[in-house]
């Protein structure tokens, strides 16, 4: 892509930002759809998020993805936080429209699109379990509930934190919440690991039988190969396993479609970033 003055500017902002795949993903989308955009990575000083965003807007920036540690601060500068961001309690995409800063969170939608469109598992009528009760789970609840699963359960090491989600989402979703031990005797068609254990070597204390025959086990972290959760699932006989590479690309596609009004084909980009699960 040529970086000429007419190109519209987008960026991902975070600190650190060196690891971000967003510039590669969005540049691939732009090339495939013929959109004349430039997408860069910006490392904002830890105490300079707002000033960096304002400078980007002043320089003609049209939108941004937001990553750690600014997902909450992005909320504070938004003039129009959409429901997806409000309920997730975090922002991952901004659009600049005149004086307005519109904020969204596409992580949950990206997850649902990956499960349903790429992995071919419809969530309607299914028993779905989310492990973890942090930010990743908050983002996932509403888009999953919108697919009308038969049951949406949230289990967490601290059961109280899971119960807190039940209260926070009471107006939007019916949740079964509790600790892992309370799952004994239950089985699920889709089991999602939204804890941070994908980044460590910790195993979740999942009772035997939690994976229903033919279940999908999905690790939201990407690029870490077989995480302890995925190994646990395999040991329980699960053959349909996935990590979050598809979610990463699908949330990017949602942001791209929101900004540019056209939807890129995600499959080749997912293939490019897929690390074998072994
Ligand atoms: P994120 O925003 O990525 O969801 P977070 O808000 O820090 O991160 O949440 C981390 C989640 O991983 C929590 O659900 C946490 O459980 P607790 O609320 O009980 O702390 C979960 N988690 C982290 N380490 C864990 C471990 N060793 N075993 C079980 N759950 C773990």
Q: Which key phrases capture this entry?
A:
278 residues, alpha/beta, Rossmann fold, 2 domains, six-stranded mixed sheet, six-stranded parallel sheet
Helical coverage, percent range? 25-40%
Major beta sheet, strand line-up = 2-1-3-5-6-4
Q: Structural class given helices, strands, pairing?
A: alpha/beta
CATH class of the largest domain: Alpha Beta
Tally of DSSP helical segments: 10
pLDDT averaged over residues:
95
- Our Rg estimate from Cα atoms comes to 19 Å
CATH topology of the largest domain: Rossmann fold
Quote the distance from N terminus to C terminus.
35 Å
In CATH, the homologous superfamily of the largest domain goes by the name NAD(P)-binding Rossmann-like Domain
> Largest sheet, if any?
6 strands, mixed
The amount of beta strand, in percent, is 15-25%
Topology:
Blueprint: E1 8-14, H1 22-33, E2 37-43, H2 49-58, E3 61-66, H3 73-77, E4 80-81, H4 83-88, E5 93-97, E6 100-104, H5 107-118, E7 127-131, H6 135-145, E8 151-155, H7 159-168, E9 176-178, E10 188-193, E11 211-219, H8 228-235, E12 240-242, H9 245-260, H10 267-273
Helix pairs in contact: 1-9, 5-6, 5-9
This protein binds 2'-monophosphoadenosine-5'-diphosphate.
Structure description:
- This protein has 278 residues and is an alpha/beta fold.
- The chain folds into two domains: 8-105, Rossmann fold (3-Layer(aba) Sandwich); 108-245, NAD(P)-binding Rossmann-like Domain (Rossmann fold, 3-Layer(aba) Sandwich).
- Helices cover 35% and strands 23% of the residues.
- It has ten helices and twelve strands.
- The chain has helices at residues 22-33, 49-58, 73-77, 83-88, 107-118, 135-145, 159-168, 228-235, 245-260, 267-273, and strands at 8-14, 37-43, 61-66, 80-81, 93-97, 100-104, 127-131, 151-155, 176-178, 188-193, 211-219, 240-242.
- The strands form two sheets. It has a six-stranded mixed sheet, sandwiched between helices.
- Helix 6 (135-145) links the parallel strand 7 and strand 8.
- The radius of gyration is 19 Å and the shape is globular.
- It starts with 7 loop residues before the first strand and ends in a 5-residue tail after the last helix.
- The relative contact order is 0.13.
- The model has no long low-confidence stretch (mean pLDDT 95).
- The structure holds 2'-monophosphoadenosine-5'-diphosphate (ATR).
- The site of 2'-monophosphoadenosine-5'-diphosphate has 15 residues, from helix 6.
């Amino acid at each position: 892509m040529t970086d000429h003055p007419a190109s519209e500017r987008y960026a991902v902002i975070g600190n650190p930002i060196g690891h971000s795949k967003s510039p590669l993903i969005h540049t691939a989308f732009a090339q495939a759809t013929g959109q004349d955009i430039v997408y860069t990575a910006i490392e904002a000083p830890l105490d300079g998020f707002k000033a960096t965003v304002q400078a980007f807007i002043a320089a003609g920036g049209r939108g941004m993805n937001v990553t750690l540690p600014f997902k909450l601060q992005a909320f504070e500068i938004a003039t129009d936080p959409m429901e997806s961001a409000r309920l997730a309690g975090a922002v991952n995409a901004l659009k600049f429209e005149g004086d307005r800063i519109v904020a969204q969170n596409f992580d949950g939608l990206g997850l649902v699109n990956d499960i349903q469109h790429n992995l071919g598992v419809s969530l309607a009528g299914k028993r779905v379990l989310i492990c973890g009760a942090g930010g990743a789970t908050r983002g996932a609840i509403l888009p999953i509930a919108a697919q009308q699963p038969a049951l949406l359960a949230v289990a967490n090491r601290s059961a109280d934190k899971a119960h807190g989600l039940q209260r926070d989402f009471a107006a939007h979703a019916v949740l079964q919440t509790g600790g892992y031990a309370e799952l004994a005797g239950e089985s699920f068609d889709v089991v999602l690991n939204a804890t941070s254990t994908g980044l460590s070597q910790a195993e979740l204390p999942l009772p035997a039988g939690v994976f229903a025959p033919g279940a999908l086990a999905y690790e939201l972290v990407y690029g870490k190969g077989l995480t302890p959760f995925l190994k646990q699932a395999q040991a329980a006989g699960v053959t349909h396993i996935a990590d979050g590479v598809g979610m990463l690309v699908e949330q990017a596609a949602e942001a791209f479609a929101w900004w540019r009004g056209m939807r890129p084909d995600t499959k080749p980009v997912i293939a490019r970033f897929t690390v074998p699960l072994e």
